[in-house]
Amino acid sequence: MQRRSFLALVAAPFFLQNLKRSRRKNSDPLATSRYIYSQSVRRSHIDGWDKLPIGSLMGRIGELFIGTPYVGGTLEGDGPETCRIDLTGLDCVTFFENVLCISRVVKKKKTSWEDLVKEITFTRYRSGALGDYTTRLHYTSEWIEDNVTKKIVNDETKDAGGELFPIHVNFMSQNPQYYRPLTEDSSLISRVAATERLLATTTRYLIPKDRIAEIEHLLRTGDIVAIATSKAGLDYAHTGMIVKEGDNARLMHASSQKKKVILDVRISEYVNSVKSHTGISVLRPLEV
Fold first, then answer.
1. Domain range for 154
2. How far apart are CA 135 and CA 93, in angstroms?
3. Which residues pair with 58 in a beta bridge?
4. What is the distance of C-alpha 258 from the center of its chain?
5. pTM of the model
6. Of 1, 99, 113, 209, which has the highest C-beta tally within 10 A?
């Protein structure tokens, strides 16, 4: 059995047992999230994961979250926009975002909760600055653009044989009823629409779904994959992280179908199983 497979069997259950104990003692999601974070950092130092390349470290941290419930909408709440972090339930974006940022904090040899909040704020908001709701990087294409500029990730898609991927997004501005802050303050809709128009001027690349199997050998553990969609007004419909097993690249993600974080099938198989998926963009985390 490969060491990665062994860790997937023993590390995650150990982690989840401790998490259940913490939940019994304290039902506060923030307190439990702090506990999860502290245990992730502790495990990284004890097992020497902090010495690994950041992609491999992300693979180890990601394994700790296998089995974590799928929960959407954890970034929303009452009051003004703030950097909310809830590690007790994850969606496809908060899964890779938290794994990436915990890994970056570990590599920086920092351990406080405030360090994690600072790191997530930097990746989650435009130019790393938290403002109102519209400063959050809502569209994955903008998250890529902004975090490439901030040197958090590198877009590997073009070099892997990707094709030009025109960005035409307007779903948020056309459907504000799905976004509580936009229904509460309609003046924000025009700002969202301005961002959408700006995104149309950016250049992204895409590996078509029928060619993903050909390039799987180029992918690495820790690569973030954004799965494009044919649905009108959207750019990407799902995100996850790669775990390599030989030349096979499996998808680790928070699955809305399975209702939890799982290590799934090969990325090529996953993308081709959904008609509306059109391909992937690949983002490689940069060393800190």
1. 3-285
2. 16
3. none
4. 17
5. 0.92
6. 99
d(CA 113, CA 110): 9
Are 260 and 67 within 8 A, CB to CB? yes
SS (H, E, C) 59-96: HHHHHHCCCCEECCCCCCCCCCCCCCCCCCCECHHHHH
CA-to-CA distance for 262 and 95, rounded, in angstroms? 11
Residue 156 has pLDDT above 60, yes or no: yes
pLDDT at 1 over 50: no
Q: What are the tens digits of pLDDT across the range 50-107?
A: 999 999 999 999 999 999 999 999 999 999 999 999 999 999 999 999 999 999 999 9
Residue type, 213: A
Q: Which residues partner with 236 through β-bridges?
A: 228
Please give the full DSSP string across 40-64, using - where no structure is assigned. Answer: HHHHHHHTTGGGS-HHHHHHHHHHH
The CA-CA-CA angle for residues 143, 145, 151, to 5°, reads 95
Segment 194-209, tens digit of pLDDT: 999 999 999 999 999 9
pLDDT score recorded for residue 30: 94
CATH number at residue 161: 1.10.3670.10
